[in-house]
Design brief:
The protein is of the alpha+beta class. It is 27% helix and 25% strand. It has a single domain, classed as Penicillin V Acylase, Chain A (4-Layer Sandwich).
Length: 374
């Protein structure tokens, strides 16, 4: 399960996503620099190899650590992409192809704009198909994918079923979850895609049990009053930390945007979160937790100017330990949330201003529990 949203203005777009996966699956944040090579050969994705291209953009991605592809990311051209699991009657049940996460990373590496990234994903989907075990431990878990693709001046929803796809431009804002939304209002489609989209072909029990419509409504409502030129990282962090009832530890359901795993009927947990400001004429501004449970996690700076030194290898594990302590001690989680709010009041405006050096120092102070002295 996941939730992704975009808010667009004339020269600025905001992108945000919660990645919901198995609760003990580590997710790693990484920077891969741009590449240009004369004889690129082939690239080994999670399950299959495909021809590589000569020129690839630099990317910041958040990916489950066992796969090649990514759950979300931003490239150095200001393109951001997040994907969602969707379930249709055409989902491939056997064999291996490109995972949706592979398609996402390939779109970022090869797409210099939102429209170009959409074209990359659509072409590779038609050429190679999608499929393969997509779970960390649950290797029977398979799904098709939808994508939200944005750059500073344009955004698209791209929905897929098998090798077919439909796409719709985003006017001002949208949010997507684990359900199809494009009907007869597609702007682009593959030759084999039905005129009415894939809504009639979806596997309804997964949609209803996962409460996808409820989460989509929650992100749409919470972001509905935000304008691109007056939005902030703090605003979108609040959207991604929503709980429908309780605080996720006491209460909690599949309707929570900040999802906490809870037994057989609630197996997913938010394992990383990302927010990006995409602005014409400026480098992308990126904040990412790199760990689980955003209601307890610091949004840390990421970017192409200072590399990724702030993301230590054990960030995910340290965050998981904080989650476990908070789950056992209600008083501790109240103190942790208060301290988090105080830290981000200073840190997130620094990210938005492009002062990543200061933001990195504040993040390191948080890690050392020394924010008050920073």
């Amino acid at each position: 399960m996941c939730d992704t949203l975009v808010i667009r203005g004339e020269r600025t777009s905001w992108f945000a996503k919660n990645s919901d996966r198995e609760p003990d699956e580590p997710q790693r944040v990484a920077y891969h620099p741009p590449v240009e090579e004369a004889a690129p050969g082939r690239v080994s994705c999670t399950y299959i190899d495909i021809p590589q291209v000569t020129r690839r953009h630099g990317v910041v991605i958040s990916r489950p650590d066992w796969m090649w592809g990514a759950e979300m990311g931003v490239n150095d051209q200001g393109v951001a992409i997040g994907n969602e699991a969707v379930f249709s009657s055409r989902t491939r049940r056997f064999g291996q192809a490109l995972l949706g996460m592979d398609l996402l990373r390939l779109g970022l590496e090869r797409g210099g704009s939102a429209a170009e990234a959409l074209g990359v994903i659509a072409h590779l989907l038609e050429a190679h198909g999608q499929g393969g075990p997509a779970g960390y431990r649950d290797k029977a878990f398979r799904y098709d994918n939808s994508f939200l693709i944005a750059d500073p001046s344009e955004a698209f929803i791209l929905e897929t079923s098998g090798r077919d796809w439909v796409a719709r431009r985003v006017a001002e804002r949208t949010s997507i979850s684990n359900a199809y939304s494009i009907r007869d209002d597609a702007d682009l489609r593959s030759d084999g895609a039905p005129a009415a989209g894939f809504v009639g072909r979806e596997f309804a029990p997964m949609r209803w049990l996962g409460r996808a419509r409820d989460r989509q409504a929650a992100t749409a409502c919470a972001s509905g009053t935000l304008e691109a030129d007056r939005c902030s990282f703090l605003d979108l962090a609040s959207v991604l930390r929503q709980h429908a009832d309780g605080d996720g530890f006491e209460g909690g359901s599949n309707a929570d945007v900040c999802m906490h795993a809870g037994g057989l009927l609630r197996p997913s947990h938010t394992t990383s979160s990302m927010i990006a400001k995409l602005e014409v004429g400026a480098p992308p501004r990126i904040a990412v937790t790199g760990t689980k449970t955003p209601c307890l996690s610091l949004f840390r700076p990421a970017g192409f100017e200072v590399g990724f030194s702030v993301m230590q290898p054990d960030v995910w594990e340290a965050g998981a330990a904080l989650h476990d302590q908070a789950a056992a001690d209600p008083g501790f989680r109240v103190r942790l949330k208060n301290k988090l709010a105080a830290a981000e009041a200073h840190l997130l405006p620094r990210i938005e201003a492009g002062d990543l050096v200061t933001a990195e120092a504040l993040a390191r102070a948080w890690d050392a529990y020394e924010f008050e002295r920073a």
